[in-house]
Amino acid sequence: MVLKIDLNNVFHPLLQDEGLKEQDISSFKEKFNKAFLNLREKKEKQELGFFHLPYFPEEEIVEIEKTAQEIKEKFSYFVVLGIGGSALGPLAVHTALNNLRYNELPDELRGGPKFYVEDNIDPERMASLFKVIEPEKTVFNVITKSGATAETLSQLLIVTELLKKKVGQRFTDHLIFTTDPEKGNLRALARELGVKTFAIPSNVGGRFSELTPVGLLPAAVTGIKIRELLAGAREMAEKCERENLWENPAALAAAIHVLLLERGKNMAVMMPYADSLKYMADWYAQLLGESIGKKLNCRGEEVYVGQTPVKALGVTDQHSQVQLYTEGPFDKLLLFLEVENYRNTVVIPPDFPQYAELKFLGGHTLNELIIAEKKATEFALLKARRPNYTIIFPEVNPYTVGEFLYFLEAKIAFMGEYLDINAFDQPGVEEGKKATYALLGREGLEEKRQEVLRVQKDPKYILS
Ligand SMILES: O=P(O)(O)OC[C@H]1O[C@](O)(CO)[C@@H](O)[C@@H]1O
């Protein structure tokens, strides 16, 4: 059961000038050949580690599975502390593959301990976490690729104090670190404290790290078959090696995004028709936003390129955003996520004579209804000349999720090549990070602090 990618509604004649023609793809072949060779070279030189993740070393998988088993036996709560790529993947995969009400299930029906992903540092949220977990029965998985992210390290300080109060010097038994193999504060702390630590390969950036211990450990702890995830990613990796543009799913989808971006489709909506895939749109928003939103190209010229990610949920957002998608500006490319077989079936009862006007619904299932609504929306968008494409999950399972994650990562890598930008850095977030540290009084940043404080707020623009 493999993922299918339906591109009909990108090439459909009903789209008229808003869509693409097959010739557009043919004329893109030269760009593809160059991108393909560049990526192959980067892969061979071990510059882009995510390409190798589907072939994750067996001994590391065994170690993850062993640790996950120990956690399941000893702990009742597993809390991820991380942000961005260190949180969105674990959350998306958990939501996709575990019961949607996982934490509410009785112990015997859950695949592992109760699971929380704490990315934001909203104090109300953090305080509320401490009302539902028991620290002495909790393991905190601190995830940060750089080992230097202020949000995550603040959380580490907070839970360390809490743990010390509850379990004393054994607090390190309640911590697991996932970080760079060599660099960063967290790696140094791990050495000093002797905390169990997993490595994120140094050539894998945060937003491409879901198929490393970043995602694999939380998945294994909550009962997800991580070998299946990797097997799905492997199948997709092989497809993304194809040297023919029409047969290479990542390269073709990337070409479509770039061609349509050049024609003003500067927004990319992801709209899953499944609550289980809702957080995939959050994960993808970071992947697309941070990777493709760039001021400079690889030659240092100012290009200000990007495709703004928009998150939506079918059918919920049919009653919220779809009006805009069908009649608003012609600036969007939509990506639907469709599920052929949901893991549950709910029947709409047929025999309620007193509800005569509802007869057309009775006897169907919610499964039929949600699929019909997706197809109807897709049709309405097509008629309104809005290009869209669909990734079809025969079923949401570890294998198809593995395929999906890898497909989108490879697509982003191709987009970066086509656009001649570095899809693997994020210089635009550095100014804000530095200003935060300066405001908190970090040594050596006094000048920056003064610069931030000089940007005065004019009271006349503050209303109350
Ligand atoms: O995993 P880290 O290093 O803590 O970084 C968290 C996130 O911060 C960023 O560096 C910037 O937002 C992301 O790219 C990254 O996923």
TrEMBL record:
Protein EC: 5.3.1.9
Cellular localisation: Cytoplasm
InterPro entries named among the record's database cross-references: G6P_Isomerase, Phosphoglucose_isomerase_CS, SIS_dom_sf, SIS_PGI_1, SIS_PGI_2
Enzyme type, top EC level: isomerase
Any GO MF annotation of the entry: carbohydrate derivative binding
One Gene Ontology cellular component annotation held by this UniProt entry: cytosol
Keywords from the named record: Cytoplasm, Gluconeogenesis, Glycolysis, Isomerase
Record pathway: Carbohydrate degradation; glycolysis; D-glyceraldehyde 3-phosphate and glycerone phosphate from D-glucose: step 2/4; Carbohydrate biosynthesis; gluconeogenesis
Segments passing through the bilayer: none
Principal localisation: cytoplasm
Statement: the UniProt record of this protein carries the keyword Isomerase: yes
GO BP annotations listed: gluconeogenesis; glucose 6-phosphate metabolic process; glycolytic process
Catalytic activity: alpha-D-glucose 6-phosphate = beta-D-fructose 6-phosphate
Lineage top rank: taxon: Bacteria
Residues annotated as catalytic: 290 (proton donor), 319, 433
Gene3D superfamilies, per the entry: Glucose-6-phosphate isomerase like protein, domain 1
Function: Catalyzes the reversible isomerization of glucose-6-phosphate to fructose-6-phosphate.
Family: Belongs to the GPI family.
PANTHER family: GLUCOSE-6-PHOSPHATE ISOMERASE
Protein name, as recorded: Glucose-6-phosphate isomerase
The species this protein was found in: Carboxydothermus pertinax
Phylogenetic lineage: Bacteria, Bacillati, Bacillota, Clostridia, Thermoanaerobacterales
